[in-house]
Amino acid sequence: MHLFDSVKKTKLPFEPLVPGKVTLYVCGPTVYDDAHLGHAKSALVFDLLTRVLRANGLDVTYARNITDIDDKIIKKAIEQKKDIKTITDFYTEAFHKEMDLLGVSRPDLEPKATENLEAMFAMIQKLIDSGHAYKTQEGDVYFDTSSDNEYLSLSHRVQDEEDKQNRVESSSFKKNPADFALWKSVKDGSVTFESPFGAGRPGWHLECSAMIEEHLAYKDTPYAIDIHGGGADLLFPHHENEAAQTRCSSDHNLAKYWIHNGFVNIDGEKMSKSLGNSFFLKDALKEYDGEVLRFYLLSTHYRSNFNFNTEDLEASKKRLDKIYRLKKRLFGLANSEEQTQFQKDLLEALSDDLNISKALSLIDEMITTANETLDTAGKHKVLKRETMANLAYIEKVLGFGIKNPFEYFQFGIDTDTKEKIDSLIEQRDAAKKEKNFELSDSLRDEILAFGVQLMDTPAGTFWEKV
After folding, report:
1. Crossing angle of helices 117-129/240-249, nearest 10°?
2. Structure letter (DSSP) for residue 4
3. Residues sharing a CB contact under 8 Å with residue 32, sequence separation 6 or more, in sequence order
4. For residues 85 and 88, what is the distance between their CA atoms, to the nearest angstrom?
């Protein structure tokens, strides 16, 4: 398997720190608002990576944090006159539900900032004791960037004076303009946490380093974990500062491989709340099935910037429809675990830095070949077994085609209408058994009036939206 390393800027063979095992940490959401398409893209990329690693026989421990201490959370709590936990619990649950609809598997570990303050305190103290951090007269604790001769080695960034000035925080007691907060003293009467350094709140960069060290890190390897991931916007300063904290407080570097997914643009414009085009995931899920969004957001290479627009989404849906048309054609056949050349080729493509373009072309080719053969005379028993196995493999590794094929084509019909249609189908089935064909035909016409079509199969009667 090969992965592109964001720091070394090249594709490298993937060699785990411990043979057969993989530790993966991804920066999760700050739970003060609804998830947007950028959150969805990142979650899907690392869900796919986890599936591919496991398909290669590796034992993966995947951690994704929840940031539930943040100034934005506190601001929203004050605005809505609610306590912090009410806000964070609400948006954490919403995030989980939306990820479920996208088919994103839950991480093995999901540490929260509020539950890891002791680990943060321990890391801050180590940095102070080793001379890499200092406490100011105001009660803040800062990381001393001048003490780390490898600072900026992750992002390969060169800071000029203008850049340094842009990053100056409010404190005038910092040693260097680029120094960043590990602990922020708070004296405005808002939410604080008690610490050995005084009442305040942790710096944002600190939590991930501390959580990794507490929950995931190997203690006897040159790197704490195998892979650290997140959006491209996190490389600097967030991941740069994480790496510095770990490097200077322990005897290992943070991650052997760094993986970053590209930005999401909407109609060619970078997604930004300041631009008013931050497309909330919940709005997209009202219009499209979660699996359609999954297929679309994964349809371009993870490192590329993604341009979200409805025209491409509709075209992507038609591509996913083909998987379900084939699945529907084979509906009712027994599951198969037969190993095929297609499966080997698909995993090989995805093992090449998640080469989704090649993977999707292989799927298109498999579907076309299967349909062409099924259109010819013969029972095609071997082909059907292999195709069922291939569809199951696509579902396992890519998360496509997981639904009942008939239910997939029902998206857009509300729950009440679905219940009415199902009730009418039951009545029609009963009328057919009683050989009351006049009533059966009448009920069929009533069902079709909902804008659906019926399919009578040996496994029962199914319907889909026209």
Report:
1. 70
2. E
3. 70, 72, 73, 75, 76, 87, 88, 91
4. 5
For 436-461, the pLDDT digits (tens) are 999 999 999 999 999 998 888 777 88
Note the pLDDT tens digit of each residue in 372-401. 999 999 999 999 999 999 999 999 999 999
Distance from the Cα of residue 279 to its chain's centroid? 16
Which residues, in sequence order, are CB contacts of 269 under 8 Å at separation 6+? 275, 277
Enter the tokens of residue 242: 């994480």
Nearest to 95 by CA among 23, 38, 50, 51: 38
**What are the distances in angstroms from CA 279 to CA 24, 267, 272, 283?**
28, 11, 9, 7
- How many CB atoms are located within 10 Å of the residue 313 CB? 18
What's the one-letter identity of residue 380? H
User: Can you spell out the DSSP letters for 296-345?
Assistant: HHTSS-TTS-EEE-HHHHHHHHHHHHHHHHHHHHTTTPPP-----HHHHH
Sequence-distant (6+) residues with CB within 8 A of 224 are 212, 213, 216, 217, 218, 246, 250, 252, 253, 254, 255
What 3-state DSSP class applies to 440? Answer: helix
Whole-model pTM above 0.90?
yes
Closest CA to 211 of 32, 69, 77, 38: 69
- Taking the C-alpha atoms of residue 247 and residue 224, their distance in angstroms, rounded to an integer, is 9
